[in-house]
Specification:
alpha/beta; Collagenase (Catalytic Domain); 4-stranded mixed sheet; 6 helices; 47% helix
Length: 159
C-alpha cells in the first residue's frame, strides 16, 4: 500500500470539536486517489473574525465562511507536491450542520472535500461547473459512506 498525502492541521481557535488528523488524511486521500502519495495539504482552523477578514480580502464577501482554499501556484505544485492551504472556520461549520440538520463530522468531510476540489481547479461560479463539482463531491462522499449533502439544500456551493 502506498503512503497517502501528508496533512498538517494548525489550530488558531481554541473552542469546538475538530476531527482527528486521521480523518483529514482519509478525506484528502479519498479526493486524491492514487495521486495522494507525496502530496501535501495544510489546514488552518480559524475563528469567525479571521474567516471574515480572509473572505472579504480574497473573495470580496464580508462575512465568515466555512472553507477557503488557497492553491499553491502550478509551478510550485509540480516540483514540491504541495496542494495548498484550506482555511476552515469550525464555528461556521457547527452552525451550518445544525441548521441543515447534518452530522457534524459528515459536514466537516464535505467541506474538506469541497475545499480540496477547489485546490485541484474545480469551481462553481457557472452552473455547468457547479453541477460538475457537486457530482464529484457526491461521488467522493459516497465512498466515505456519507450521504449526498445537496439533497436537502436548495443552494449550491458555499458562502
Amino acid at each position: 500500500m502506498t503512503a497517502g498525502a501528508s496533512v498538517s492541521v494548525s489550530r488558531k481557535v481554541r473552542r469546538g470539536w475538530m476531527p482527528p488528523l486521521r480523518d483529514f488524511r482519509l478525506w484528502a486521500d479519498t479526493v486524491l486517489g492514487s495521486a495522494a502519495s507525496g502530496r501535501e495539504l495544510s489546514v488552518l482552523l480559524v475563528g469567525e473574525r479571521r474567516s471574515r477578514t480572509l473572505n472579504a480580502r480574497y473573495r470580496g464577501r464580508d462575512k465568515s465562511t466555512n472553507v477557503l482554499s488557497f492553491p499553491v501556484p502550478q509551478v510550485t505544485t509540480r516540483s514540491a507536491g504541495a496542494l495548498g492551504d484550506l482555511v476552515i472556520c469550525p464555528a461556521v461549520l457547527r452552525v451550518e450542520a445544525r441548521e441543515q440538520r447534518k452530522d457534524v463530522r459528515a459536514h466537516w468531510a464535505h467541506m474538506v472535500v469541497h475545499g480540496m476540489l477547489h485546490l485541484l481547479g474545480y469551481e462553481h461560479e457557472r452552473e455547468r461547473d457547479a453541477v460538475r463539482m457537486e457530482r464529484r463531491e457526491v461521488r467522493l462522499l459516497r465512498r466515505l459512506g456519507i450521504a449526498n449533502p445537496y439533497v436537502s439544500r436548495s443552494a449550491r456551493g458555499h458562502g
